[in-house]
Specification:
Blueprint lengths: L5 E2 L24 E3 L2 E4 L10 E2 L12 E3 L8 E6 L3 E10 L4 E7 L3 E9 L4 E10 L32 E10 L2 E8 L4 E6 L11 E2 L1 H4 L9 E4 L7 H6 L2 H8 L5 E5 L19 H15 L3 E5 L20 H12 L3 E2 L1 H12 L18 E2 H18 L1 H4 L37
Parallel strand pairs: 3-4, 13-15, 13-16, 16-17, 17-18
Antiparallel strand pairs: 1-10, 2-3, 5-6, 6-11, 7-10, 7-12, 8-9, 8-11, 14-19
């Protein structure tokens, strides 16, 4: 049985499998408790010390909390104004009727999945959410540098880059009773990368980075700074690395995965050569992390979905994956070989089924859907276990072994969808 990061009262909750299950009857109940500020969204007698908030209370920046716009029944989002930082979130789930709740944070970061409670019972789950804005501390007078991350137009309105902590409650029957948010200082796993790593804002696309928080205990935070279309160079001149480095601290980790866009000769301003500049930029990132006491980890890019006549994956990344491995050997940095694991995964699915792991109904051979992102995150977890034991100590207990050569069927995979949908392809596609 999968560990849910939940504190379950005896006989109170019946955890469901992560794959296909019978849907439950939709229901929603709310009651939130934010540290010293306590909010009650229920219909029962007001709890002592709580403030009643109407269920239709839209987010108000003056009030500092409220529900985000919703197009109707289904997933609902609640936001709370908070400063940048990491926050421990404790949620009591359940209600009078049976419930089935999945929780995502910010731009669809998967925090907990399929928490099932029987009628009249509750379950409590706990996780940590990283919150950030695009602002940078201004450099000293006459010193070079920027005051903001140079966001692209597609990031406008993203919950990843605002001054709120946003939670999305999904599933066939989400039921939330109480919620507490409190600032916390914990180790942080920072992610630097491209569209195959970023928090994809819209269904049905997804990337492994936004699935990763689900696999960690609530004693660590995942801060995903990756963005679609990025390269080692653009991540620098858009001040994304500056933003990441402004917060990273001793004991944190930095996972670095670039390559899909760096190899594009047709992008002359950001192209880097595998044998020279690509390695040099990777070393610069490694050096910046180490200078601040953080621990860098390199990740090779996953394959694109291109099969040969024998059903084997064709390498479209040239010498870039080997360059990552060479830099790892030279600098003593762990390397998670997602390239090899993705080949095993896609070949196990085969040409007739591998498309089911990819975006746009398989028309996109680079980017993934929820299933593809989830199983690639499991590959990354495998790499963490094998190559980064100090980080592996923070993985949730009870995770079953995952073999990329024997993946679960995409036809039986279930992950509650989010409210936001788009048919626009990822930037840089």
């Amino acid at each position: 049985m999968w560990h849910r990061r939940a504190v379950l009262a005896a006989l109170a909750v019946a955890p469901a499998a992560s794959w296909a299950a019978e849907p439950a009857t939709p229901m929603q109940t709310w009651a939130f408790d934010f540290g010293d500020d306590k909010f009650d969204f229920g219909d029962d007698k007001l709890a002592p010390g709580h403030v009643r908030v109407a269920r239709d209370a839209a987010y108000d920046p003056v009030v500092g909390h409220g529900f985000e716009p919703s197009s109707g029944p289904g997933p609902f989002l609640f936001s709370l104004a908070v400063p940048e930082g990491d926050y421990r979130v404790t949620v009591e789930l359940g209600g009078k009727a049976a419930s089935d709740t999945t929780i995502k944070a910010e731009s669809r970061r998967l925090m907990v999945e399929r928490i099932v409670a029987r009628a009249g019972k509750t379950a409590t789950v706990e996780f940590v959410v990283n919150v950030r804005t695009a602002a940078l501390k201004a450099p000293p007078t006459n010193a070079p540098g920027g005051v903001r991350v140079l966001l692209n137009p597609r990031e406008d309105g993203a919950y990843d880059w605002d001054d709120k902590l946003t939670l999305e409650f999904c599933g066939p029957a989400p039921a939330v009773r109480r919620l507490r948010v409190e600032p916390v200082t914990v180790p942080v796993v920072y992610l630097a990368g491209d569209s195959t790593v970023t928090d994809q804002r819209f269904e049905p696309g997804a990337s492994w980075g936004q699935m990763l928080p689900r696999f960690f205990k609530p004693d660590i935070s995942v801060a995903n700074h990756a963005e679609s279309g990025e390269t080692l160079k653009s991540f620098l001149f858009e001040h994304r690395l500056d933003k990441l480095l402004s917060a990273i601290k001793p004991g944190d980790w930095l996972l670095i995965q670039f390559g899909h866009n760096d190899q594009k000769v047709q992008w002359p301003q950001t192209y880097v050569e595998a044998a020279t500049t690509y390695r040099d930029y990777l070393k610069a990132y490694i050096g910046e992390a180490r200078r601040r006491g953080a621990r860098p980890v390199l990740v090779t890019s996953m394959h694109r979905r291109k099969f040969d006549a024998a059903g084997k994956i064709v390498n479209t990344h040239g010498d870039y994956p080997e360059a990552v491995r060479a830099v790892g050997r030279e600098t003593g940095v762990p390397v998670i070989d997602l390239l090899d694991m993705s080949a095993a995964l896609y070949e196990a699915l085969g040409p007739d089924n591998a498309w089911k792991a990819f975006a746009d109904g398989g028309k996109d051979a680079t980017h993934h859907n929820n299933y593809g992102a989830y199983v690639l995150a499991q590959c990354v977890v495998n790499g963490v276990r094998a190559q980064v034991p100090d980080l592996a100590a923070h993985l949730v207990e009870g995770l079953p072994p995952f073999d990329p050569a024997h993946p679960p069927s995409p036809d039986s995979f279930v992950l509650a969808p989010s409210a936001a949908h788009s048919t626009e392809p990822p930037r840089g596609n």
